[in-house]
Design a protein that fits this description.
By secondary structure, the chain is an alpha/beta fold. The chain has 3 domains: 21-207, P-loop containing nucleotide triphosphate hydrolases (Rossmann fold, 3-Layer(aba) Sandwich), CATH 3.40.50.300; 213-291; 297-363, Arc Repressor Mutant, subunit A (Orthogonal Bundle), CATH 1.10.10. Helices cover 49% and strands 11% of the residues. It has helices at residues 21-32, 52-64, 80-91, 100-104, 129-142, 158-172, 185-192, 213-227, 233-242, 247-260, 269-291, 297-306, 315-322, 326-338, 357-363, and strands at 41-45, 68-75, 146-152, 177-183, 204-207, 313-314, 342-346, 349-352. Strands 2-3-4-1-5 form a 5-stranded parallel β-sheet, with helices on both faces. Strands 6-8-7 form a 3-stranded antiparallel β-sheet. It is globular. The two termini are 39 Å apart. Bound molecules: adenosine-5'-diphosphate and magnesium ion. Adenosine-5'-diphosphate binds at residues 7-12, 14, 17-20, 46, 48-54, 247-248, 251.
Length: 366
């Protein structure tokens, strides 16, 4: 049947935000805190598909209705500065009626709305990203508003540095500004080791965890009942558990159950199983493959040695299977934890941190 509820793709706002109320509260409290407080700079850390971009989009909506002009999530890459300035100017559309041309001119003259040449030739200094941002903050402040910048898919690169350094300088000038960055665990750990960005280690970090099964179960129950899909309560709970708390897998499983159901909502065990396996296959192709991109042969051997254990693995056993010393296995462990691929269960015990990663590794063969 036609899918009215689920949308499995990256960075789109879901019809309903499932779970994440604590995270949202934490982030919005940051915006409500005093300018300059450490909660004004946030790092959202989590594997692909855990809902980092979605969370930022939600915060952006909150911010817009609570006295901020907002640069919605912008990817840290070439052309980013113009995009951020452009987004801020359009978010504060009414505020910038008169000053827009001046701010957007100079180095960013390519912006659609900056037609005129300034009376004064902008020096490199006054045309810099930081200078424009500063001017936007001042202009916004005249109208009692603050400024929020959101940087997505943060890399340890010059673009991230530029935004973070500008933020830090403007905080020093006591501007009403906030910054939220999001990225993968391994990348963020690189960013935090960047000498230029050490001040970010003091910013508040939000580690995204999988969503609660109960919340997914409740959401599925409501959606499937509304669409008249005939699943038992046990099957709905099973579907929720199969997501392993991944919001992306939740969208995929919900979507395939819906499209495989007949127009009358009929769904037997065979169709149900097919929906689950189709969703998981798509998840593995989209996500596990990308998560493993660029990891070394040694790291791969470490992860494969973990697949012998259905649940968690003892480091000691993994080391034995690899034929290395436990101390040496610790260096793999550390790296794989930073990459967000595994997590610690207890002392000397680890497990996969990405849903379906074990199954994916097994499917690749030995
Ligand atoms: N809290 C949530 N509730 C419902 N769907 C969500 C939620 N978070 C993420 N999603 C869905 O999961 C998918 C991936 O989310 P996204 O924010 O793009 O992940 P990330 O930025 O962490 O890679 C999208 O299809 C999105 O709609
Ligand atoms: Mg994203």
């Amino acid at each position: 049947m036609e899918d009215r509820f689920f949308s499995p793709s990256f960075g789109n706002k879901p019809q309903v935000l499932v779970g994440r109320s604590n995270e949202l509260r934490e982030l919005t409290e940051g915006l409500d805190s005093k300018p300059g407080s450490k909660e004004r700079a946030r790092l959202i850390i989590g594997q692909r598909g855990l809902g980092k971009t979605v969370l930022m989009l939600e915060v952006a909506d909150y911010a817009k209705s609570h006295g901020y002009i907002v640069a919605s999530p912008t990817i840290a890459k070439k052309g980013m500065e113009q995009k951020i300035i452009e987004k801020l100017l359009s978010s504060g559309n009414n505020i910038f009626e008169h000053s827009r041309r001046r701010i957007s001119g100079g180095a960013f003259g390519a912006l659609g709305f900056s037609v005129g040449i300034e009376t004064e030739k902008p020096s490199k200094e006054s045309g810099s990203f930081q200078a424009k941002l500063s001017e936007i903050c001042d202009e916004a402040a005249k109208h009692g508003k603050g400024v929020v910048i959101m940087l997505d898919e943060v890399q340890n690169n010059a673009y991230t540095e530029e935004v973070a350094v500008a933020y830090q300088e403007l905080v020093g000038e006591e501007k009403n500004i906030a910054m939220i960055m999001a990225g993968l665990p391994a990348t963020i750990s690189g960013v935090l080791n960047n000498r230029v960005l050490t001040f970010l280690t003091r910013s508040s970090k939000l580690y995204l965890e999988p969503i609660n099964y109960t919340e997914i179960d409740t959401y599925y129950y409501k959606c499937f009942r509304e669409m008249g899909i005939t699943l038992s309560e046990e099957q709905i709970m099973d579907a929720a558990v199969q997501t392993e708390g991944s919001p992306y897998l939740m969208q995929l499983i919900g979507h395939y159950i819906t499209v495989l159901a007949g127009d009358d909502g009929f769904m037997d065990d065979t169709l149900y199983s097919r929906a689950i396996s189709t969703a998981k296959k798509e998840y593995m192709n989209d996500l596990c493959e990308v998560a493993l991109h660029g990891i070394s042969g040694g790291d791969m051997a470490f992860l494969r040695a973990m697949t012998d254990d259905p649940g968690s693995s003892k480091i000691q056993h993994v080391a034995e299977r690899m034929g290395v010393s436990p101390a040496y296995a610790q260096t793999y462990k550390k790296r794989m934890m930073e990459a967000g691929l595994i997590e610690k269960v207890s002392r000397g015990e680890i497990r996969f941190a990405v849903p379906m990663l074990r199954e994916y590794l097994i499917s690749l063969g030995a």
